Amino acid sequence: MATVIKPKRSETALSVPAANSLAIGELAMNVADGKFYTKKTNNSVVEIGGAGSVTLANVMTNGASTTVDLLLDQGANLIFEGNLANAYETTLTVAEPTADRTITLPNQSGVLATEGDNLAFSIVFGG
């Protein structure tokens, strides 16, 4: 007869087990999210596998790269913090496309002109 192993579990989306509900090394899972958790010796609860165990942030922190397209879906943006973690960021976003579009960055170093840069805009676009 097979043995059924049932870790502690929750069916509440985004629910993470509290440290006081797990023993060190004990497994818990969130069925709704498909994520597994365990408690470490420092009493922190960490995700160890499942649907959300690999994030783009994890991949980039580890210095990985890719040779395939990166799709940002459903209105996702690229947000650049800058050198200081403050209230100001630069967000790269896209207007709702009505056809396939391609923007090619030039093969040179420099600063891109925007509509808000009146001098550069008038030089590039004559207006």
How would you briefly describe this protein structure?
The chain has helices spanning 56-61, 118-125; strands spanning 8-10, 27-30, 35-39, 45-50, 78-80, 90-92.
* Quaternary structure: single chain
Q: Low-confidence parts, pLDDT < 50 over ≥5 residues?
A: none
Reading the helices and strands in chain order gives EEEEHEEH
Number of strands: 6
The biggest beta sheet reads: 4 strands, mixed
Radius of gyration: 23 Å
N-C termini distance: 80 Å
Spatial sequence of strands, sheet with the most strands: 1-2-3-4
- Portion of residues in beta strands equals 15-25%
Structural class label: alpha+beta
Instruction: Calculate the mean pLDDT score and round it.
Output: 84
Approximate shape: elongated
Number of helices: 2
Helix content: 10-25%
Describe this protein's structure.
The model has no long low-confidence stretch (mean pLDDT 84). The relative contact order is 0.09. The chain has a four-stranded mixed β-sheet with strand order 1-2-3-4, with no helix packed on it. Strands 5-6 form a two-stranded antiparallel sheet. By secondary structure, the chain is of the alpha+beta class. The protein has helices at residues 56-61, 118-125; strands spanning 8-10, 27-30, 35-39, 45-50, 78-80, 90-92.
